[in-house]
Each structure stands twice: as C-alpha cells, then as structure tokens.
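Hey, sorry to bother you again with one of my protein questions. I've been staring at a protein lately and its backbone has me curious. I owe you a coffee for this, so here goes:
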Amino acid sequence: MNRCLCVLTLAILLAVPLHAQTDEAAAARTAAGCGLSTEMFDVQTTDKKHPVAQPDPGKALVYFFVDFVTAPTMRAGVDGKWLGANDGKSYFFVQLDPGEHNVCMEWQSGTFKKTSERIGEAMHLIAEAGKTYYVRMNFQYQRMHLELADDAEGHFLIGSSLFATSQPKKK
C-alpha cells in the first residue's frame, strides 16, 4: 500500500510542473495571436477566382498570404483565435475591428503537433478602420518570416496566388 501511495504521489508531483509548463506555453502562444494547437482546418484553393475586397464600414481588411508554392498548410490567427488557413501559395482575407492586434501564422500538422507549434511567426498589427493590410508569410532559408506588404505587392500577390477557403475540421 505504501509503495502504491509513493508511486501515485511521485506521478502527481511530476505531472503538475509539466502541466504548468504546458499551460504557460499555451498562454504565451495565445498572447502572440495563435489559437489552440488542437484546432485544424480543411483548406480548398482555386485559381479560377482572385477576389479583392473592400473594408466594411468601421472595419479594417486584412489579407493573409503564404508566399511559397509548396508551403504546408499554414493557419492564421488574430488575438488567440484561428481565423482560417492557407495551403501552398495562397491567400484569404478577413474583416477586423480597428485597434491593436497580435497576428500569428503557424504550420498546421496533426502528425507533428509539437513541432508544428514551433514553426511559424507572430507580429503586432495596429489596424485602422477603412484601411487594408497585407500580411505575408515568406519562407527564407530554414526560416519563416511574417511581414506587412505594401499595396502594390499585395495586389501582385492576389493576382499570383491561389484563393483559399477553409473550414474547421470536425473533431
């Protein structure tokens, strides 16, 4: 009986710090703009249409681009919530409330979940009502880089990328 109690106590003592570390990592990722690592998207892309939107009244328009033809599925989040995903060289857009936002893009992988949480990037965005922003994920030598593109580059990316639509995967 004592041996079982010792093993149970040891297991609890080891699990609590591990759980706390996991919670700290999840909180840090949420603060960076990322959503929950368990949320996944099904993505469809098309070259048949290249929609261009305008900001809704009182909103900012944000395009999310992945600028690499063979890129894996990359999900995009704002303020701790995933908004959609891209697959390969593609884009989608969303309307955001004006103000300060944290934006995150990261690799979506169900197979390499822990590794995928470490492959991506985040940035701070101050969005103004009536303005359009082009958030671009570039792939550089062994690294990803998230940046804002200007209007000319944004329109070029719309014309040279697939349009992506995504739906949350059913659990």
Summary: The longest strand covers residues 99-107. The chain has two domains: 1-31, 41-168. Confidence is low (pLDDT under 50) at residues 3-20. Strands lie at 41-46, 60-66, 74-78, 81-86, 90-96, 99-107, 120-127, 132-140, 143-149, 162-168.
